[in-house]
Amino acid sequence: MHRIEVVEGKCIGAGNCVDVAEDYFDQGDDALVIVLKEQVPEGDVAEVERAVKACPVAALRLLGA
Amino acid sequence: MLPPPRIAELREKQPALVRMYDGTPAALVLDYDDVTTIMMSPDVSDDGRAAGFPYVSEAARHNRGKRPTIDRLDPPEHDIQRAMLAPFFTVKRIKQMRPFFEELVDSLLDELEEAGPTVDLVTQFARHIPAAGTAELMGLPSEDIPRFLELSETYQSFGSAEEIAAAGAEIAEYFERRLAEPADGDDFISMLIREQVRPGHLAPDQFVRTMILILTGGFDTTANTIALGVVAMMDHREAWEALANDADDELIAAAVEEIVRYTSTAHHAVFRLTTAPVQLSTAELPADHAVIASQMAANHDPKKFECPHLLDIERDARTHVGFGMGIHQCLGQHMARLALQVTFSKLTKRFPRLELAVKPEELTPRIGLVHGLMGLPVRLTP
What we know:
- The complex is a heterodimer.
- Chain A has one domain (2-63): Alpha-Beta Plaits.
- Chain A has two helices and five strands; from the N terminus they run βαβββαβ.
- Chain A has helices spanning 16-20, 45-54; strands spanning 2-6, 25-27, 33-35, 39-40, 60-63.
- The longest helix of chain A is centred in the C-terminal third of the chain and has 10 residues, at 45-54.
- The radius of gyration of chain A is 11 Å and the shape is globular.
- Chain B has a single domain (5-162, 215-379), classed as CATH 1.10.630.10.
- Chain B has helices at 5-11, 32-40, 77-85, 91-95, 98-115, 122-126, 128-138, 145-155, 161-180, 188-197, 204-235, 237-244, 252-263, 295-299, 333-350, and strands at 16-19, 25-29, 44-45, 118-120, 270-274, 278-279, 284-285, 290-293, 355-356, 365-366, 372-373, 377-379.
- The relative contact order of chain B is 0.19.
- The model of chain B has no long low-confidence stretch (mean pLDDT 91).
- The chains are: A alpha+beta, B alpha+beta.
- Chain A binds chain B through residues 12-16, 18-20, 22, 26-27, 29-31, 50, 53-54, 56-58, and chain B through 39-40, 79, 82-83, 86-87, 89-92, 316, 318-319, 324-327, 329, 333-334, 337.
């Protein structure tokens, strides 16, 4: 299992993570990131990695097991 | 839409030094990794008020003495203003506009079909799509769209300082009027006035210039991406045919990312000034150095995108910098994506045999802050 981590105070609400991996990310009323599922099984790693890379301010990390 | 050949030469001598119109030396940064470094570094300022900040012309400086909008601000001011605007541009909120865009594009395609077989895809089609979308999002009356379109195109052109200022002033007057009226609607403009301007979180002049920024940003870029995207696919016919046959729209999201990468319509946005030394791949830029980071060159960097001159709609181009990177990344990017997805899906399917009605070299380019085409004559059903 891998785990999604949000770097505190960086998110600007650009929404790319939601656009790429909507099962894992959402935006609140303030547009900022909400992680829907922290744990990422092997099969979804590629998708979540794309979402992490799409973040314009590097506010997301995918940590190994 | 492809970077000029000179860019490939300059890649070998990174960073290249260019001189602005007033003699200010600026580093021209081209490689993908360096361009993203410039866009994401906390040691690079976007505040256009600073001495030494690079401008392309006297006209481009015309707003400099005024209080800046988010496109020319650093944190923390930038972040406060972006947070006011971001909730109106979330993925979820933009997704709700899909039926609006589908209906809009269908009706424009009907009009094209009636006007055909030869039509101008810029004036009769492309420019109306983002304009109507932006107006819908902002809550602007649709009868005002044609005038806003004219003004926005002048505002984004490389015209004279007077012309650009006059266009800006006319758009400003509209929003100043809105400020004086009751703001009780649920639209973007009313809500922003009610929740941010009236309580004093956003100064009235900043509100007005922010509205100009969103209006002109939304009206122009996507229209040019549509036009250039069609030309690119005429040159890569297999992409057009693949989308025409893609009944379940499985290819469209990736195709749009690739079209945005390939066309790099907003090629003229990343002007910056370093505030501390910044390490690039080949050199260190000193503090207080002007920088121009080219999104187009980054999107065509062969180290990042293999065979960048090929439009390959199946490649994963999602990390392109067509919408920028860092805190200034395009606020309206999800609306642009949606508009482009709906447009290219429906256009290719309605007119699978569409072809240019002139030779590509006969097309007139539109050169400005955003690049594109003045017109695009096509035959719908040859």
